[in-house]
Give the backbone structure.
Amino acid sequence: MTTSLTINGESHQVDLPGDVPLLWVLRDALGMTGTKYGCGVAACGACN
């Protein structure tokens, strides 16, 4: 699935399966490693 994204004013196109989480698109496909993953269930405090 090809998707167009605009991030920080810059256009990007990615061709990935539709079930890939946005976090993985940002980190793995676009190399934006500043995007971090917490626990995913609001237990570690990263989302607070």
